[in-house]
Amino acid sequence: MANSSRPVGIDLCLHGFSHVYGLPEHADSLQLKDTSARDPYRLYNLDVFAYEINSRLGLYGSVPLLVAHKPDTTLGVFWLNASETLVDLKYWYVFGILQQGERSRVTPQTDVSWVSESGRIDCFILLGPSPAQVFSQYAQLTGYQALPPMFSLGYHQCRWSYEDEEDVKSVDAGFDLHAIPYDVFWLDIDHTEGKRYFTWDSKHFPSPVDLQRHLQTKKRKLVVISDPHFKADPEWPLFCEARDGDHFVRSRDCRVYHGTCWPGDSCYLDFSSSRTRSWYSRQFLLANYKGSTESLFVWNDMNEPSVFSEPEKTMPKDAIHCGGWEHRELHNLYGFFQHLATFEGLLTRSGGLERPFVLSRSFFAGSQRLGAIWTGDSVATWDYLKISIPMLLSLSVTGIHFCGADVGGFWRDPDPELLVRWYQAGALQPFFRGHSDKRSMRREPWLFGDVVTSAVRAAVQQRYCLLPYWYTVFHQAHTSAMPPIRPLWVEFPKETETFTVDNQYMIGSALLVCPVTDPGVTEVKVLLPGSDEVSLLLHYVNACPSQITISALCTLVLVGGGWVGTKMEGLLPSVCSAPNPHLPVPQGFADGELYLDDGHSFSYRDKKEFCIRHFTIKAGRLTSRQGLDVCDLFFHQTYVCITSRVCNR
């Protein structure tokens, strides 16, 4: 074999630090816990249905990046290893005597122990010293967040599974009838012919091109699933082509590896091979993928990889990849490689002109370059709604910025209150998709009565109102690596009371979010960091208290030294109403920017066709100036701004 299996590790002392974050993916708190008396954090990609919460066990993806923070310094530790990895943490204090007669000094310290099953020591220390500098340093190593196409920041409707073309058209019409905007419809595994990917069920989806054209007339897209396993069917030409082209992972005895997944007996593509990735990418060409159009995009699932018939439901560690590498050496990279091949396939399909959209369940360091990630098979309970927030923040501080959780929870049935709260939370997270298990009741928003329909409509419309702001913060992620959603300590690094907060977060530098994650709540307490700033709570101005209590009808607070661009176009929930002339306007200073381009192509990069407009409010007067390569074509009257984070100066 290419490598012998020999564990490697390193012990580090982070002197002066008592708060560390990162190491996704775990259903646990944002701040990493002391593991002295408990299990270590495990980085090992696994298919875990209805995963345990408040746990350090490995889930679908892994990013071996730890971020430590204290008021004057942020640093990162990136352990580049794709084999199974365990990380132990110990928080403690160092006592020292300065000089005779002086009192002892107590200094916090965090000890970190990394142990990987195989590989070599490849460790990067990111010295910061600010959070923004750590994020930039990490992005220089692993890549910046891809700038997503605008449609992918809208709402996505998914279920395992929609039954047929008429079902799709009926649900699509339901969104129009109830005035709930959405951009993307999703099809799970049952749209295929016997769970053979790159095919369509001839009975239930006989006219896939017509279906996509139907959605296209409303500027909507279709996403279909493509898993890494192929049904072992010698009558299926694509399976035979993959087998004869030596594109499958092999067993220890060098025969093609067989495992069990949705199609039954299956073989698994060896995405570690560049030759196999190129072959797989070509399958997305319109000439090869019959029934596909340019408005079809892709979802990679089960790519940890999931193997139902094996221990821990994944591929044996002694399976053999291209070049003789054992699977144990690159296990955590398997899903990344499929994500990469799919991304390259959609890129090639458009001749390199259009931005791909690909969602992947499994991920590794660098997956941010390829598309979106979600938190997998959650359960429709309040605890899973609550834990989704620190899970997404942990992903965000480790470079995985385009992330989200299944709205409503994947498994079981949410009650109407939980469903509404999850929509309100999901509308304020980067990737916004409703998804559910086939054993769950249908949960299109209008099935729960007028009150629920109205509340969901308001949450989704608020999302569309804020799309220009979301697009701007994603451009900042794409160019500077600043996370679109970020823990409070990232924006307020010296305020120690923010260091353990993981039920609130910032969208960019201007919006503070506090989702409601408990039943029966009528008001919530919100920490307002920033001592020299004025906060606008929708229509109310607050004089900088450190904590306020607000109505649970609101999850959004506008705080600190920036502004928010919003989109009107007939969507008029309160947050995007035109400025109220009777609203008290602080006599302070605020500034910010709005980024726009065509929303779908690489012209912003290749032809410099984009707009950056800088805005300033001072003494109640709004002014704007041109940024780089301004194209006024993109700036029109449907965009207005709401001031926030107003500094008293």
Automatic annotation (TrEMBL):
<dbReference type="InterPro" id="IPR013780">
    <property type="entry name" value="Glyco_hydro_b"/>
</dbReference>
<keyword id="KW-0378">Hydrolase</keyword>
<dbReference type="GO" id="GO:0005975">
    <property type="term" value="P:carbohydrate metabolic process"/>
</dbReference>
<dbReference type="Pfam" id="PF13802">
    <property type="entry name" value="Gal_mutarotas_2"/>
</dbReference>
<dbReference type="GO" id="GO:0004558">
    <property type="term" value="F:alpha-1,4-glucosidase activity"/>
</dbReference>
<dbReference type="Pfam" id="PF21365">
    <property type="entry name" value="Glyco_hydro_31_3rd"/>
</dbReference>
<dbReference type="InterPro" id="IPR030458">
    <property type="entry name" value="Glyco_hydro_31_AS"/>
</dbReference>
<feature type="domain" description="Glycosyl hydrolase family 31 C-terminal">
    <location>
        <begin position="482"/>
        <end position="531"/>
    </location>
</feature>
<keyword id="KW-0326">Glycosidase</keyword>
<dbReference type="Pfam" id="PF01055">
    <property type="entry name" value="Glyco_hydro_31_2nd"/>
</dbReference>
<dbReference type="InterPro" id="IPR048395">
    <property type="entry name" value="Glyco_hydro_31_C"/>
</dbReference>
<dbReference type="InterPro" id="IPR000322">
    <property type="entry name" value="Glyco_hydro_31_TIM"/>
</dbReference>
<feature type="domain" description="Glycoside hydrolase family 31 N-terminal">
    <location>
        <begin position="6"/>
        <end position="88"/>
    </location>
</feature>
<protein>
    <recommendedName>
        <fullName>Glycoside hydrolase family 31 N-terminal domain-containing protein</fullName>
    </recommendedName>
</protein>
<comment type="similarity">
    <text>Belongs to the glycosyl hydrolase 31 family.</text>
</comment>
<dbReference type="GO" id="GO:0030246">
    <property type="term" value="F:carbohydrate binding"/>
</dbReference>
<dbReference type="InterPro" id="IPR025887">
    <property type="entry name" value="Glyco_hydro_31_N_dom"/>
</dbReference>
<feature type="domain" description="Glycoside hydrolase family 31 TIM barrel">
    <location>
        <begin position="146"/>
        <end position="472"/>
    </location>
</feature>
<dbReference type="InterPro" id="IPR011013">
    <property type="entry name" value="Gal_mutarotase_sf_dom"/>
</dbReference>
<dbReference type="InterPro" id="IPR017853">
    <property type="entry name" value="GH"/>
</dbReference>
<dbReference type="GO" id="GO:0006491">
    <property type="term" value="P:N-glycan processing"/>
</dbReference>
